[in-house]
Amino acid sequence: MELDTAKSKLERNKLGQFATPPILAQELAELASQYLAQGKSKVRLLEPSVGSGSFISALFKAFPLKNVEAVKGVEYDKRFADFASSLWQDFQQVQIISGDFTSQKQKEGEDYNLLIANPPYVRHHHLSRDVKARLKEAVRNELGIEVSGLAGLYSYFLLLSHKWLSDDGLSFWLIPSEFMDVNYGRAVKDYLLNNVELLRIHRFDPSEVQFTDALVSSAVVIFRKRKPPTIKPVEFSYGGSLLKPSSRKEVSAQELADSNKWTPLANDCEHPSKTSSLKLGDLFDVKRGIATGNNSFFILPRSQVEEFEIPSGFVRSYVPSPRYLKDSIIESDSEGFAKTEKDLIVIDCPEGEDFLRNNYPKFWNYLEEGQNQGVDSTYLTSRRTPWYSQEKRPAAPFLCSYMGRNPKKPFRFFWNKSQAIASNVYLLIYPKGDLLERINENPSLEGKVFNELEAISPEDFRREGRVYGGGLRKMEPKELKNLPADRIAEIAGVSTQGELKF
Prior knowledge:
single chain; five-stranded mixed sheet; 19 helices
């Protein structure tokens, strides 16, 4: 569509504009007709981010024209609003409003018994501080719910639509499935459990991306505006299509309320959660790797250390990206540097500028060139003293890749025998407490621990991690720390209470 291509991908990303595929729009409308007495009910539709009107078109195919009383579409982008107004001008039921849905004033007696929406997927960092404050206050005043500052615009759209729905009104939302598992999704989950009757959540297979230009895994959330029942379970479906999902199951509202993450309750792996006395977090500290602020400047081939006359004490060995590591064991040379395909170092110098200028002029010239390029004024470097130093991270004996797509083994573990530090594409894993004591007493135990880390099942990873469009999976430190560790405790001689066994 010309309106889509008129703006760059970055511009549409900032506005959260991702057009609904026509087939999916039609399925949503068909499903709405099933909930509304097979399309025989009178329909008053609200579409808070109407675009060109794909849901309106689908509605008129799913419902008899005589049963559509009113359609109100709101669109922030004036180009789309003008186009939709022209497109639907012959339909008296249809009213297109150019403006921001979250700022719309509701007329007395105005409500809608059906809402279908693909709200703008605008991430929190594209929302100004003033806009966030206004939206948070609006939700607080209307629902008494506190929204995280990390929540995207779609969360506010969903929450602020509540007042527009009539009693028993139905709501269908096509939104990122991330809300089910992340902390900033709590406001939406709170609303779905305590303010409405949550009917169904359908999660699309992450490998079947619904939007070709958005790296996001999608879900459809369906609820009715009525007091939440205490007994009725929620239907979860997965994969396939809305009308013909690959699998279905029911989950009680109490299970949802008791769980921080909803995806594992009804995801594609049907294995029951394993009970584990110990978690990795009981035996290990887990940290993200370092972020330099400018990799192309701070990370160099080791061969350039001599070229710029950088003292050995001002560099650290650096683990390259997982794609450059063929083996899972990172060996060390005699100086503690990692023996990898790419022999890299990262600049990490604690000395002041005057000292370097007077004692290491060639190294200083390199740093000065970085200043001329503005390397010293990036967000991260400007907050470090000196700006060419790095975060304090000791070399970790175990590493885990932060993201992956391989469905059988989405994350890779590495045994780091060197003194190399790793970037933030890795999670750094440090034995602690009794486990650390055991390893210090018996260094050969490190290899056995590594073997057990590698043996953690893909199902466990899928339960704790998060998934995005195209099957991309990510694992944060807190999520990795939730993986089971009983086998590691057993081979290390650590009891389930975390104490040493003699």
